[in-house]
Amino acid sequence: MQIAEPLLVAIEELSKLPGIGKKTAQRLAIFLLKMDDDRLDNLLNSLKDLKTKLFFCSRCFNLSEEKYCEICKSVKRDTSIICVVEEVSDVIAIEKTHEFDGLYHVLGGVLSPLSGITPDSLKIKELLKRFETENIEEVILALNPDTEGEATSLYLAKLIKPLSIKVTRIARGLPIGGDLEFADEATIGRAMINRLSI
Predict the structure, then answer these.
(1) How far apart are CA 19 and CA 117, in angstroms?
(2) Which residues does 141 contact at the CB level (< 8 Å), separation at least 6?
(3) Is 86 exposed, middle or buried (CB count within 10 Å of its CB: 0-12, 13-18, 19+)?
(4) Is 36 exposed, middle or buried (0-12, 13-18, 19+ CB in 10 A)?
(5) Is it the case that residue 72 has pLDDT exceeding 90?
(6) Residue 181 burial class via C-beta count within 10 angstroms: exposed 0-12, middle 13-18, buried 19 and up
(7) Closest alpha carbon to 170 in 146, 150, 148, 140
(8) Fewer Cβ in 10 A, N or C end of the chain?
(9) What digits encode the pLDDT tens for the residues 116-145?
């Protein structure tokens, strides 16, 4: 069957999104085609706003509408603790638990030499700079419990320990090979409460 070019292009573009295969992309494209103009405009505007109204926080690299994110600006947060995570989605997952009241630092990935991701590719230098200007007493490493996450945790621990800063990591409440983003709130909350020294 011949598919109209605009629909084919939409399916192709949608299938480039993570977790979206060709069949799901086709269903989404047809759904979007049937949407009324106002709803479609709202969706398109919200997607454009992601690129034009959101930035990375200058301090922790979380998403923000201003120079600093709401977490970094809050006077209610414990500024002596930094939780290091891989991606912004991990900040969202931990925040949903309401078990952590410190600050964050988003690395933007984990070490993966085979994929060309080295320490210079991540926000590690920026993390180390924070120790010079902030009174940090503890760093919690909340990276995914897979090979790359473990390697990154060990690398960071070796850099931070000589600075006389306590280094912990979240407890093993998460499955090996799993992602923080997809874990339930109770599991992440328990892992934050039972974090261990490295």
Answers:
(1) 22
(2) 84, 152, 153, 156, 157, 167, 168, 169, 170, 198
(3) buried
(4) exposed
(5) yes
(6) middle
(7) 140
(8) N
(9) 899 999 999 999 999 999 999 999 999 988
Q: Tokens in use for 80?
A: 């002596």
* Fold classified for 60-197: Dna Topoisomerase Vi A Subunit; Chain: A, domain 2 (3.40.1360)
Q: What does the block give as tokens for 98?
A: 């309401």
Give me 151's structure tokens. 């390697």
Separation of alpha carbons 183 and 190, rounded Å: 11
- Identify which of 160, 167, 101 has the alpha carbon closest to the alpha carbon of residue 131: 160
Residue found by looking up tokens 């192709």 in the block: 12
Question: Domain extents for the chain?
Answer: 5-52, 60-197
Rounded Cα distance between 99 and 185, Å, is 10
| Residue 2 pLDDT level (bands cut at 50, 70, 90) | confident
Amino acid at 99: E
Question: What superfamily would CATH give domain 5-52?
Answer: RecR Domain 1 (1.10.8.420)
Average pLDDT across the chain, whole number: 92
pLDDT at res. 173: 67
Give the position of tokens 């960071």. Answer: 156
Full 3-state SS string of 52-64: HCCEECCCCCCEE
pLDDT digits (tens, 9 = 90+) for 170-182: 877 667 777 888 8
Q: Which of 64, 99, 62, 106 is nearest to 84 (CA)?
A: 106
Phi, psi of 45 (to 5 degrees): -65, -40
